[in-house]
Amino acid sequence: MKEQILIAVDCGKANSKGLAKWKGRTYTTTFPTRMQQVKRFGVEIQPNSYLVEYKGDEFLLGEMVSESYSDFNLTKNSLIHKVAIYTAITNLLLKANAPSYVDIRLAINVPISAYKDKIQKENFKSMIENENRTIHLIVNGKAFSIDLSDVTIAFEGMGEVYAKPEKYRKGYTTVIDVGGLNCTYCQFKGVQPMVNTMISSDLGVKILLGKIGKAINERYGLSVSSDDLEHVLRSGYFASKGEIFEDSKVFIEELKYDHLQQIVQFAKSRGYTFNMSEIHFVGGGSITLRRYIKQLFPHAVIIDNPLYSNCLSFLKILEVKYA
């Protein structure tokens, strides 16, 4: 029997995250889900960036790519997600120093709406498996040939429920996954997702960035780029020509609070009461909104290292499936 490596990839609109388990050790990777097609690219590749040759085309992924090359489509059935997932796999294979003949057991996620649709789920699975054909690509000058079959499809918004089933088996848990473009909600009875609660909204962090950009334009008459807005959100203020606009510190925080209120109101409009349930926030957006999550939900849990919480559940599913 061939050796197996377990790989879980959560390819989001903001970041691609991956975990691999090989010979008792766990390996991680994360990079921005931004991709730009290039030709005869000669610039030295910087850390957390990848030059990928796939099907005769060249693509640059990761930190070196502008935020304007992010994918703003709701679907993940796209070239950018396909190449990002393959890149995450090759990066994990390298980190684990796994042999080329190893069996790759892969779990990936789709938006919760696609997960509930049998046809959409099968189409995405077929795309990632490359219709059972060997996948050939070159990443940062190193050639890979990988085969993917029996790919496990998971859904966004699992959090760590399946990673720690003994912790969640007896109670109710509401998981709110604040991603790049979407915000996903799911309530679990023990470890069973309640289908009627599996919903999503377009209230991810990139939508918040758009609100901040609009406010800057209206207040100061200045236009800002997607990359500017990333810096604004990280810094907590807006500056132009070296001048920090002090009042921007206030309205940026107000917009964050308002955005979280919208996330909560959307859930309530779809039947969520937040009663008799633990509230867990996951995803990179929960880091951005942490301050106000703690104000609205003082007893909510913001999962440690929320970027990888979904991947930890995917990995556990693989461990059980291929035990």
Automatic annotation (TrEMBL):
Pfam families: ALP_N. SUPFAM superfamilies: Actin-like ATPase domain. InterPro entries: ALP_N, ATPase_NBD. This is PRTRC system protein D. It comes from Oceanobacillus picturae. CDD domains: ASKHA_NBD_ParM_Alp12-like (cd24026). Residues 8-159 form the Actin-like protein N-terminal domain. Coiled coil: none annotated.
